[in-house]
TrEMBL record:
It comes from freshwater metagenome. Keywords: ATP-binding, Nucleotide-binding, Transport. Belongs to the ABC transporter superfamily. Residues 10-242 form the ABC transporter domain. This is Unannotated protein.
Length: 247
């Protein structure tokens, strides 16, 4: 029988992370198809950030991460863009909005290292997509929390990754821009980009996401939000004892 080709853009196989004696994430497996919009839901300290960082190759982990059918090695995951929580960003560092977004273009610079006109045009376009077209020269430290989140999303867009991992990317974003970003996520998914968003906004998940992963130190549920966020299942996710430490 001829083996079927791998269709998943991203696959986690028994991914686990420990910080010393603390098991932040125990063996968790799931796969993501191209163009999926997926919510990741769980209490504080459940391992959401740890999972995203492991998938992106930012921290050591057990288990396998497979992208486009190929086993990834540490820090060789250019097809994956990770957008951290705002609390993980050092706003004291003197950097402009355009410089932050340009950092997403580094994978295209190769040995020349110098941005081209095309890179600058791409930065301008990505900022326009998140409604920050007039902010290029502003210092990141002068922006509101919601604006910082949108700058980080623009950086991920500039990276042109196949998978976006958005860690609380809608936290602190006002209602209007939340709606606009959800529409942007839908447009990206329609073009084949896969978007995973960790969030505590359950009403947003129920109304705008077709798939929901629930997590509490491991993947507990995976399916329709109407099912995974049902009263009894949701209570089971949030009532489990979490491991102290990382989100």
């Amino acid at each position: 029988m001829t083996p079927q080709p791998e269709t998943s853009v991203l696959k986690a196989v028994d991914v686990a992370v420990s910080y010393g004696d603390v098991h932040a994430l125990t063996a968790s497996s799931f796969s993501v198809e191209a163009g999926e919009l997926i919510a990741v839901v769980g209490p504080n300290g459940a391992g959401k950030s740890t999972l995203f960082k492991a998938l992106a190759g930012f921290i050591d982990h057990e288990g396998d991460v497979v992208v486009h059918g190929e086993q990834c090695h540490h820090l060789e995951r250019q097809a994956i863009a990770y957008i951290p929580q705002q609390t993980d960003v050092d706003l004291r560092f003197p950097i402009t909005v355009a410089e932050v977004v340009m950092a997403g273009r580094r994978r295209f610079h190769g040995s020349r290292m110098k941005p081209t006109r095309s890179d600058h045009d791409r930065v301008t376009d990505c900022l326009a997509q998140v409604d920050l077209a007039d902010m290029e020269t502003r210092s990141l430290s002068t922006l509101s929390g919601g604006q910082v989140q949108r700058v980080l999303l623009a950086r991920a867009l500039a990276q042109e990754a196949d998978v976006l991992l958005l860690d609380e990317a809608l936290s602190g974003v006002d209602v209007r821009h939340t709606g606009e970003l959800i529409s942007l996520f839908a447009q990206l998914c329609a073009r084949g980009t896969s978007v995973l968003v960790s969030t505590h906004d359950l009403s947003l998940v129920r109304s705008h996401f077709a798939r929901c992963l629930t997590i509490n130190t491991r993947i507990i549920g995976d399916g329709l939000p109407a099912v995974e966020l049902d009263g009894s299942r949701l209570e089971a996710v949030f009532s489990r004892t979490t491991t102290p430490g990382r989100a």
